[in-house]
Amino acid sequence: MMCAIRAGSRGKKVLLLDHAKAPGEKIRISGGGRCNFTNIDAGPNNYLSRNTHFAKSALARYTPRQFLDLVERHRIPWHEKTLGQLFCDNSAKDIIHMLLAEMQAADVVMELQQEVAAVESMSAGFRIRLKAGGEVEAGALVIATGGKSIPKMGATGLAYRVADQFGLNVVETRPGLVPLTLDPPTLERLSPLSGISVPAEVRHGKTSFREAVLFTHRGLSGPAILQISSYWREGSAIELKIGPDIDFLALLKAARKHNGKQAPQTVLGEVLPKRLAQFLTESSTVGGQLADLSDKALDALRQTVQAWSLTPAGSEGYRTAEVTIGGVDTSELDSRTMAARRVPGLYFIGECVDVTGWLGGYNFQWAWASGHVCGDAV
Predict the structure, then answer these.
(1) Which of 62, 72, 84, 288: disulfide with 40, CB 3.0–4.6 Å?
(2) Nearest in space to 343 (alpha carbons), one of 354, 335, 332
(3) CA 341 – CA 229 distance, rounded (Å)
């Protein structure tokens, strides 16, 4: 839609084909129905890609402020939540209606429930054959079909098949921004924690995120886990630092000094959910009264709370993943136009490209930015 708006507003004849029954379905369900439509701080460092420089051009040429200006021109009320995340006050449908209005103003023709059967190259462009019958010929073809995430919303691997058809490399795809699962013995051990959410710093290698972690009946979720899942690979461990802003050793020492008859889990339960405090204390094997515990024992308890290593068994997969990591290799594309270097007239934008944003509006901003520069180019 973003690409179509830009190309149409510059006088091009644009046809948008969508196999869905309604436009912008991923927009509609995003942000709990309120659409985290951008992140005011979005920059190249917030994206994963084999080529970390690729996104710079598009992001610089269409910024979060520019999209926010569009939102405000349409008088859509919005608010900023934590970490630069911008949401609609009312409904994600406001963003869809805005894009539809912009497409109408740009004379874009949109046809829904049009599934592509085949794409063929011609001497002067492309022929798109439709499963319902009929075909379309065009001088330029933009693939904006997203990744494999959330197949129940109609996600497919069409973009990768088209790229492969034209000899373009595709970086291995995998689920991103996805809950992580645990093996049955670990799940059973952590079952008392199901439903608990707690502030934490989650680390994998040199990458870490500070947000909430949610313990579930399948494993681990919450914003911090979704973020780290994009970096995690099977077989490796992640480290949880529960309550990263709390000095637990100082807290325990102060409690020992003022009321040594307390149990350690009682003190932890003042700053953590009580079930979690009990679990961590029992896991550390540090028991008894605080007065009987040495500094070394208290530090061992601190480490149990703030240096907790877990090895996930896997992820929940594309079924619940918010994005697809990997995609059309950026080395095949021109970063200024999103054009395939070796196939004149063919473009790939958005999630189907090997550019994946963090949680928090970054992936929408990549969609707007890559669509905008591509619309200019075509």
Answers:
(1) 84
(2) 332
(3) 32
